[in-house]
């Protein structure tokens, strides 16, 4: 079983280290941690320099000259992978909650019929729990239900590659730059339910295995006029994804 961690980073600041070290310190080692800096304009690249100067096993760092955003970067990363490979999506300024996360993910994928595994998460500033939850029943529609299937988001590559690329594109034909997680997770879940008639190919690990850094990064202020627009853009994208549904 090949397990990769994909991290897209923009202005991740000092939290680069928390992300990279949390993967490096896993008891069950990953085959590749692909960390891509998407044209950061703060000190992120200075923080990455120590890893460029002293390469770690299984760590690949890519530096984009301009922003491609998370979803397009993820799509490009997945294309050369094998169908049976596992991808774990960890944002560049977030981190894994303990050294045993990958062990639990591996255990979940020991069933070859499982194609999507997700966990709960917690905030870094106060450790309050996130909103992930069990899928309530076989009839649950991911496009109409609550957003309960996010971080840690992991998938078998075949589940991602089977999604028509049109699902990743906005109303104007451009790649989503906001609500990127919903843009790929919802079609994966929808198609798995269509294929099996239920969610037998999905597993939920009911533990906060992902730490979400929300308030502590000075490069990403969560308040003020700039963030209001960002929040509005994210809401618009999420609403569009849900209203449109799966694109065949």
Class derived from helix and strand content: alpha/beta
| Main beta sheet strand tally, sense and closure | 8 strands, mixed
Q: Which regions are unreliable across 5 or more consecutive residues at pLDDT < 50?
A: none
Round the mean pLDDT to the nearest integer and report it.
Answer: 95
Q: Report the oligomer.
A: single chain
* Distinct helical segment count: 7
Please tell me what the overall shape is. globular
CATH topology: Spore Coat Polysaccharide Biosynthesis Protein SpsA, Chain A
Give the termini distance in whole angstroms: 30 Å
Number of domains: 1
How would you name the CATH homologous superfamily?
Spore Coat Polysaccharide Biosynthesis Protein SpsA, Chain A
What is the CA-atom radius of gyration, in angstroms? 17 Å
| Total number of beta strands | 8
Give the C-level CATH assignment.
Alpha Beta
The strand line-up of the biggest sheet is 3-2-1-4-7-6-8-5
Q: What is the percent of helical residues?
A: 25-40%
């Amino acid at each position: 079983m090949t397990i990769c961690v994909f991290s897209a980073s923009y202005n991740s600041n000092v939290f680069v280290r928390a992300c990279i070290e949390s993967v490096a310190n896993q008891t069950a080692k990953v085959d590749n941690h692909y960390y891509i800096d998407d044209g950061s304009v703060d000190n992120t690249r200075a923080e990455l320099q120590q890893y460029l100067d002293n390469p770690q096993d299984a760590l690949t760092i890519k530096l984009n000259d301009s922003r491609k955003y998370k979803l397009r970067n993820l799509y490009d990363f997945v294309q050369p992978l094998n169908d049976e490979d596992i991808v774990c999506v960890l944002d560049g300024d977030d981190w894994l909650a303990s050294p045993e996360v990958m062990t639990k993910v591996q255990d979940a994928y020991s069933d070859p019929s499982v194609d999507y595994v997700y966990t709960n998460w917690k905030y870094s500033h106060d450790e309050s729990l996130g909103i992930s939850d069990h899928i309530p029943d076989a009839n649950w529609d991911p496009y109409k239900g609550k957003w309960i299937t996010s971080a840690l988001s992991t998938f078998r590559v075949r589940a991602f590659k089977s999604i028509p690329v049109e699902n990743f594109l906005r109303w104007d034909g451009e790649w989503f730059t906001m609500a990127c997680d919903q843009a790929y997770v919802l079609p994966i879940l929808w198609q798995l339910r269509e294929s099996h008639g239920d969610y037998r190919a999905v597993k939920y690990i009911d533990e906060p295995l992902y730490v979400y850094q929300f308030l502590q990064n000075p490069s990403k202020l969560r308040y003020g006029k700039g963030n209001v627009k960002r929040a509005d853009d994210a809401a618009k994208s999420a609403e569009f994804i849900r209203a449109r549904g799966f694109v065949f």
